[in-house]
């Protein structure tokens, strides 16, 4: 890897640094790539100290946090393979081997998982199947058109019920996509959706009073369809 400080100069090896840049693979290249750091003024030119990079990265097979996303990338390949140029093992095979060596006693919380950071310190963890609750606030959706569009209070109550029943995300639809539906102006879609979001954030979840909660609104993640 290459450690870089804010000015583009080489940082202390294995020391604190804002950027740690690693090259994992480069096609089928096996060997060392020599790179030079930039000038002191950050303008490039390669006059700084030379740094050899070993390709492929020598510790790919030891790092689950590297192999997990690399395995996901294999799904986008036509042949479903990203092979290590030395061992010819795929990223999926290397990950499976690593997990076997590490034992099967680790919990899902201890394994590398994909996450989606959200505002206010929240995070969606993709270590299980997540459930999306669908809330249509349109008068003409083919599935439940009109059922939750009468008021923001009605729609918010439905959203909180979906959350209580296990929804990880509430998806609010302000425009019908049924066949033949007319396009809705942006202003109208906002008029339908924003009051519902505000009400969800204000609304007290059922049972909070009985449980002694603070009465704050639900902070369930919300997406817009």
Please tag this protein with its features.
about 15% strand; alpha/beta; about 220 residues; 5 helices; single chain; two-stranded antiparallel ribbon; 9 strands; elongated
Describe this structure in words.
The strands form four sheets. The chain has a three-stranded parallel sheet with strand order 7-8-9, covered by helices on one side. A two-stranded antiparallel ribbon has the order 1-2. The chain is 25% helix and 16% strand. By secondary structure, the chain is α/β, with parallel strands linked by helices. Helix 1 packs antiparallel against helix 2 (91-102) and helix 3 (152-164) crosses helix 4. The protein has helices at 64-74, 91-102, 152-164, 186-202, 208-211; strands at residues 2-4, 19-21, 31-36, 50-55, 115-117, 123-125, 132-136, 169-173, 222-224. Strand 7 (132-136), helix 3 and strand 8 form a beta-alpha-beta unit.
Determine the structural class based on helices, strands and strand pairing.
alpha/beta
Considering DSSP H and I runs of 4 or more, what fraction of the residues is helical?
A: 25-40%
Largest sheet: 3 strands, parallel
End-to-end gap: 41 Å
- Number of helices, where a helix is a run of at least 4 consecutive DSSP H or I residues: 5
Whole-angstrom Rg: 25 Å
Mean pLDDT: 77
Shape: elongated
Order of strands side by side in the largest beta sheet?
A: 7-8-9
- Helix and strand element order: EEEEHHEEEHEHHE
- Low-pLDDT runs: 39-45, 205-215
Which band does the percent of strand residues land in?
15-25%
Count all strands and give the number: 9
